[in-house]
């Protein structure tokens, strides 16, 4: 019996590092106060495989289809990477030719595109069980010849089924590739393609809210936050509980983000910015559901959001605990010397050290006036977009 192993220092750590690096390019992931691990733990429980820079759902099929077109190539890794980039650029042109305008990755950048669709969707393809190959795109290009050379041989081995599966790049259930994919493509899914994606979600992420909403067709609700969903009461118990935790966490910590922006606005001596954040902080205070906040159990929260892909550091837990105590006491003042202000400044200084906007004037002067000012929504916008694409299949 032969075996196949992917040689890398630590592929899981490599992919985790790539995800972290990618977050710095996502507008909605600005994490000035070190809450990203908590935010992403919740999001990955509710909407696994999504990211804030995904656009349309059919890319989950476009990428496998394009990469399948490379599988017969005898080219080396570098040439395969070049050919893959060319195919992804051609896809953008085909989507424009098909009448699409919104959601095309690379629509304006063309050949200068820095972040290819494959890099945006690669992790999600693995999470949903569409991609079976365990490595990165670079690993795949390096392994392509080995995969092609060994496929015929393993069919005759004693353990042919398991070894053939190990050599698979994509799930065998992948729908067939449209013949005109590089001529005129559309984002609209066919019913068979939509059912395939639903089946993958149910099989690979059965406890996620995304799989539940995909299966029940409940993802078309027009609400800004998942806790405003009209059918929240019908969610599975674990998901409903996590959504409740997410709502309180988002509400409580929003005040810290607003205060952070206010303090910087005052240091920059920007009257318009100061007035804006003072107003928003007052609205935040008035909108707090204090009975729910006082009843919120942090112990239950930490247990509910625990996720193998994310490590939440003790300092982050301590910051949330101390900020929650201030909110419960009603002691979130606006002055620079208040306990709340000191807590926010100390947190950012510890995280950014010499690049802290509170400590480094040059860095502060480059600040454009807004950092993480919206409430955390845990990628509901991306989940809702994908669910609408499922619902619109025809």
From TrEMBL:
It comes from the Bacteria. This is Uncharacterized protein. It comes from Xanthobacter dioxanivorans.
């Amino acid at each position: 019996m032969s075996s196949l192993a992917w040689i890398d220092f630590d592929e899981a750590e490599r992919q985790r590092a790539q995800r972290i690096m990618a977050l710095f390019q996502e507008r909605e992931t600005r994490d000035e106060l070190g809450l990203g691990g908590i935010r992403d733990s919740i999001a990955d429980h509710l909407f696994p495989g999504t990211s804030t820079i995904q656009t349309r759902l059919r890319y989950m099929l476009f990428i496998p289809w394009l990469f399948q077109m490379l599988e017969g190539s005898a080219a080396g890794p570098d040439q395969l990477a070049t050919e893959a980039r060319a195919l992804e650029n051609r896809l953008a042109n085909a989507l424009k030719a098909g009448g699409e305008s919104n959601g095309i990755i690379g629509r304006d950048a063309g050949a200068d595109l820095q972040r290819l669709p494959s890099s945006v969707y690669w992790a999600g393809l693995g999470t949903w069980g569409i991609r079976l190959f365990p490595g990165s795109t670079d690993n795949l290009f390096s392994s392509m010849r080995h995969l092609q050379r060994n496929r015929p041989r393993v069919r005759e081995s004693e353990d042919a089924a398991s070894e053939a599966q190990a050599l698979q790049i994509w799930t065998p259930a992948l729908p067939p590739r449209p013949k005109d994919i590089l001529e005129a493509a559309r984002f609209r899914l066919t019913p068979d393609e939509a059912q395939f994606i639903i089946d993958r979600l149910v099989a690979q992420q059965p406890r996620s809210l995304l799989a539940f909403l995909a299966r029940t067709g409940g993802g078309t609700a027009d609400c800004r936050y998942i806790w405003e969903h009209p059918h929240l009461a019908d969610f599975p118990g674990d998901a409903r509980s996590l959504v409740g935790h997410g709502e309180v966490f988002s509400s409580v910590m929003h005040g810290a983000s607003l205060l952070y922006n206010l303090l910087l606005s005052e240091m920059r001596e920007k009257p318009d910015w100061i007035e804006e954040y003072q107003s928003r902080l007052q609205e935040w205070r008035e909108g707090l559901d204090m009975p729910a906040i006082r009843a919120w159990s942090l112990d239950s929260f930490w247990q509910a959001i625990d996720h193998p892909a994310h490590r939440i550091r003790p300092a982050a837990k301590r910051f949330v605990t101390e900020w929650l105590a201030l909110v419960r006491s009603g002691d979130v003042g606006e002055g620079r010397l208040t306990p709340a202000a000191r807590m926010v400044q100390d947190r950012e200084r510890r995280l950014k050290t010499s690049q802290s906007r509170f400590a480094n004037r040059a860095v502060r002067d480059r600040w454009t006036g807004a950092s993480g000012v919206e409430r955390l929504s845990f990628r509901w916008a991306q989940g809702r977009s994908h669910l609408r694409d499922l619902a619109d299949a025809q």
